[in-house]
Write a structure and sequence with these properties.
Layout (H helix, E strand, L loop, with lengths): L1 H18 L10 E3 L2 H9 L6 E4 L5 H6 L1 E2 L8 H6 L4 E5 L5 H9 L4 E4 L5 H14 L3 H20 L8 E5 L5 E2 L6 H8 L3 E2 L10 E2 L1 H7 L3 E6 L18 H4 L3 E5 H4 L4 H15 L5
Parallel strand pairs: 1-2, 1-4, 2-3, 4-5, 6-8, 6-10, 10-11
Antiparallel strand pairs: 7-9
Helix pairs in contact: 6-7, 7-12
């Protein structure tokens, strides 16, 4: 009996001194300051760790977590009150001055690249997985998405490159160059961006430029506040192949303006459906 009691005592000591069940890996109180990073946390099914997001993050995130400001105006007092053990920021969404202020407040901040290519999106998603202790899950998701993108690209085989115009606004009219998220979508779809040769990433163009380029397909971005929601009167320009053949398509901004692997796949799938409706 005495030996049994002694043995149980030893087990108690071992439990207290290091053999207790392991705690969950990675940071447990995360604030995301970029819509794309918030979406990726959800893609990894780790939204339970989020304690704060911005007013630009997806609606479901805003409804379920504290809003700590916008992309340009953060509430630092609220951020501190939430006691995060990690803040996620993006180079293309957040101001460097805000990032430096958070660091000065002794808050751990991890900054991610502003990706324009599918490869970069996949790499940064896997980096996020590593940061929060879900590297294997992130790798599995990326592998599945790459496989699906490759399958969609196979549908373009044997088709001549279509001339594409991507419209992001009417006043001013803005398009996308080749070295952009949008340019990557167009290229992987086996098409030619009629303004791909321009050096600016998001150059301004006019109707005359579009008429001269004679796109066979026009994609317009909708669902954004301001002039980008104003429809261009393309029906008046029947000399444009895309208009004449009824190939002007509207894409929601939420679908095509979120640089994450998952949203890239969703946007690519939608585009392929419009570009090659007869492909198997």
């Amino acid at each position: 009996m005495g030996k049994a009691i002694a043995f149980m005592g030893m087990l108690s000591v071992l439990f207290v001194s290091g053999f207790a069940p392991a705690r969950a890996e990675g940071p447990q109180r995360i604030i995301s300051l970029a819509p794309s990073l918030t979406r990726e946390i959800y893609d990894l099914k780790e939204q339970g760790r989020l304690v704060g997001v911005t007013s630009f993050c997806p609606e479901n995130a805003r409804q379920n977590h504290e809003v700590v400001g916008s992309l340009t105006l953060l509430n630092f007092e609220k951020i501190c009150a939430l006691e995060p053990d990690l803040v996620l920021a993006s180079m293309d969404s957040n101001k460097q001055a805000d990032i430096e202020k958070l660091k000065a407040l002794k808050i751990e901040v991890v900054v991610f690249e502003g990706c324009e290519s599918f490869s970069c999106m996949c790499s940064e998603f896997m980096r996020l997985g590593a940061v929060i202790g879900r590297e294997h899950e992130a790798a599995a998701i990326v592998s599945d998405i790459r496989r699906k993108v490759d399958a969609l690209r196979a549908r373009t085989a044997g088709h001549a490159p279509l001339r594409v115009f991507w419209q992001m606004g009417t006043n001013p009219m803005v398009t996308a160059g080749d070295d952009t998220y949008t340019g990557e979508l167009i290229r992987l779809a086996g098409c030619r961006n009629i303004f791909g040769q321009l050096k600016a990433k998001y150059p301004r163009v006019n109707v005359e430029n579009v008429v001269a380029g004679d796109p066979e397909v026009i994609f317009t971005v909708s669902g954004m506040d301001g002039p980008m929601d104003q429809p261009a009167p393309w029906s008046r320009f029947a000399m444009i192949s895309a208009v004449r053949n009824n190939r002007v398509y509207s894409l929601n901004a939420d679908l095509v303006c979120q640089p994450t692997p998952g949203m890239f796949l969703a946007a690519f799938e939608t585009m392929i459906g419009h570009l090659y409706p007869e492909a198997p």
